[in-house]
Amino acid sequence: IVAIHGLDGHREASWTANNGKLWLRDFLPQDVQSARILTYGYDAYTQSTATSSTQTLDSYAESFLARLAAFRARSDTTKRPIIFIAHSLGGIILKDALIRASQAHRDHLVEHKWIALSTCGILFLGTPHQGTTAVTNPANQLLKLASLSSPTNNVLLKHLLSNSDWLEQQSSSYNAICGNFQTKFFHETLPTVVLDKSSQIIVPKFSAVISGANMEVVGMSKDHSGMTKFASQRDDDFIFISTTIQDMMKKVHLQSNSVGLS
């Protein structure tokens, strides 16, 4: 199980509730004892001129793919099935990485190819898949939020803007490879309070899903940031996510027995 945080996130803090509980470490392992749970961190800072990254989404995806492939090769688990949990921008990076992995040749970068072949399930949490010309475009909302306090990394954010050619091309390429992935799309149902004290849904339902994908759409009673944090194992949203992962794993084990993944 590999978790990928979103914009201005952190590999641990993004998944940690105010009471210090990191559900990927403190709760989930009790429910999926046979799984190895990893969190991936990357420099997606946009709100500091001192630390703001100048990388593009393509370069983030390339780095993620290379690092995950190296980790799996080093631990001799190249063919082990994978379930991804991706929040916000992390979902865009994940899709790009899976497109690249699917295009890798078996005789070249075979470890990358196996990431695509081993992907069995994906949980997208508030990922802005869709571009739009509407004023509620979630990419524009993310850009607005990120720029409230300081200059932003426009190199990183420009691909998320409405009518983005890059985002449109990604959607087309991803739809061609995602048919075998068990997928659930989660969207926030509570507005996020921003620095100017206004509140808004950052990624509305229409943008949090991919049309035509093998999917189920689920609303979470949390805001955009809160949908990655669970303070208790009794949290209804945690229970649903944990159950979803367990169900995916059961199907993975059945598939593994039939195709020889390990």
Q: Can you describe what's shown?
A:
This protein has helices at residues 23-26, 28-31, 57-74, 89-103, 110-118, 138-146, 154-157, 165-175, 236-259; strands at 2-4, 38-40, 82-87, 119-125, 182-188, 192-193, 199-200, 215-220. The protein has 262 residues and is of the alpha/beta class. The strands form 2 sheets. Strands 2-1-3-4-5-8 form a 6-stranded parallel sheet, with helices on both faces. Strands 6-7 form a two-stranded antiparallel sheet. A hairpin with a 5-residue loop joins strand 6 and strand 7 (199-200). The longest helix has 24 residues, at 236-259.
Strand order of the largest sheet: 2-1-3-4-5-8
Give the biggest sheet.
6 strands, parallel
- What overall geometry do the principal axes of the alpha carbons give? globular
SSE pattern: EHHEHEHHEHHHEEEEH
Class based on secondary structure composition and strand pairing: alpha/beta
Q: Which regions contain 5 or more consecutive residues with pLDDT less than 50?
A: 48-52, 131-137, 147-152
Number of strands: 8
Radius of gyration over all CA atoms, rounded: 18 Å
Task: Summarize the model shown.
With about 260 residues, the chain is of the alpha/beta class.
Write the layout of secondary structure elements.
Blueprint: E1 2-4, H1 23-26, H2 28-31, E2 38-40, H3 57-74, E3 82-87, H4 89-103, H5 110-118, E4 119-125, H6 138-146, H7 154-157, H8 165-175, E5 182-188, E6 192-193, E7 199-200, E8 215-220, H9 236-259
Parallel strand pairs: 1-2, 1-3, 3-4, 4-5, 5-8
Antiparallel strand pairs: 6-7
Helix pairs in contact: 3-4, 3-5, 4-5
